[in-house]
Amino acid sequence: MAEHFPQPVQQQLYSLNLGPQHPSTHGVLRVLLTLDGEYILKADPIIGYGHRGHEKMGENRTYLQFMPNSSRMDYLSGLLYNHGFCLAVEKLAGIDPPERAKYIRVICAELNRISSHLLWFGTFLMDLGAFTPFLYCFDDRENILDILDRVSGSRLTYSYCRFGGVARDVDEVFIDQTRAFIKRLRSRWPDYHNLVTKNIIFIHRVRDVGIIDKDLARRFGVTGPNLRAAGVPFDMRKVEPYEVYDRFDFEIPTGTKGDALDRYRVRLEEMEQSCRIIEQALDQLPGGAYRQERVRLKLTPPRGDVYFAFESARGQTAYYLVSDGSPYPYRVHVRVPSFGNLHCLTEVLRETLVADTIAILGSIDIVVPEIDR
Amino acid sequence: MAAKDEAVRRLREQLGEGALREDVEFRSGVSWTISCTPESLLSVMKIFNACGFYLESLTGLDFQDTLELVYHMNTYEPRARMAVRVLCPHDGEVPSVTGIFDSALWQEREAWEFFGVSFRGHPDLRRLLLPEDADYYPLRKDFGTVHAYRKREEVYG
Predict the structure, then answer these.
(1) What is the ipTM of this complex?
(2) Once rounded to an integer, what is the mean pLDDT over residues B26-51?
(3) Domains in chain A and their CATH numbers?
(4) Are A268 and A121 within 8 A, CB to CB?
């Protein structure tokens, strides 16, 4: 009798390649998913498609020649990387830039952080299927790019910082434009919250999805907004204050659970905090020189190494420079935040739905060229 | 400052006074530098794990006479970063710390493919960033044109 009944269906697993050119992977990232129905059993991110060997290039260039490379590692927050590299070399060589330069750098870096977060905001929601917020964000982001374009001469891959200062001074127009932008961005918050934060479809897509808790974050070295969403107030600008960040009054936004909704809230709040920093910096902006005279083009820092960590838009970034006393660095190593942020996906994606994969991948804000270096 | 002091105390017990060096001014970006042998690496990493540290960065340095692996450990405290330095010969072997820190899974793969250090006990030693058939170690100084290839004491001397 029993053989007349259908045999139980054997468990059928199959593999699915997400990417390397899927719009939601934000670059050339391939995630090899092993699926059981719609559930993911195993996720293996495969990277390296955009590897350009920046670390090796660093060994063949002088410190100044490496400057444009730094912003090409992460093309969305290039100025922050540029700024960080500049500070690392200054720490190694013992250069102290004038006060005005420090403030200008902080203003531009925070503007760049907002533009990076705005792009994340737009593309994250586009991954979830909402197109309108994307247009709103790019409209706002365009303002920042115009301001930074005017002062630094490029729109994405900035090479604005110099050892001992910045390339060009800012003027009254820059200050007016920046103030006008902040006012405009603040007037947009109600729109964003009405459109997205209160949107019940959005909340159901991201709440309790892709939880990265404190312990998981520590094991995988997750930093930045993804770590702060888990409730750890860890921000390089507060923990190891560099430049003039210790003179400003700002907060570190944190979440509680570490799900995609918390990460969204943390980043949105972070943009507001960056606005506060910029406003204070503009108020305190001192006069004087914007660049230190007599910094040699062929810098020869003393022997030794320096590890300089700073907060980029995606988390804790660091340059590890080793100098042998010649104009060429002996070794340039970059610690990139997306590396750990992406690596934890192998753990987070286990036993989630394919549809949630897109929400999780969007919410952790990776930039693949940054991982590949 | 509890975790940092606790780690220093236990490391001192484990390795002896001479292996630790403090950088009070935080000039090179680390508070303590720990010199360590490949044999004692795992016990050092266990101490860091127990004190709540995470593996921030793992990288190699190629010198004429030796390879050096630098592990940067950090915890969520102000200025608590520590560097663990392990010397190992070219084509040498160090124990894998993947059992203690998951983030080492990828970072060791990267160090292996770029420097040719093999990590004993790594569960999945495949190429991460390079093509699968790469049979060279690009970040070694004898690959391509580089400006200088020095002995270790010439850099740190």
Answers:
(1) 0.87
(2) 86
(3) 51-371 (1.10.645.10)
(4) yes
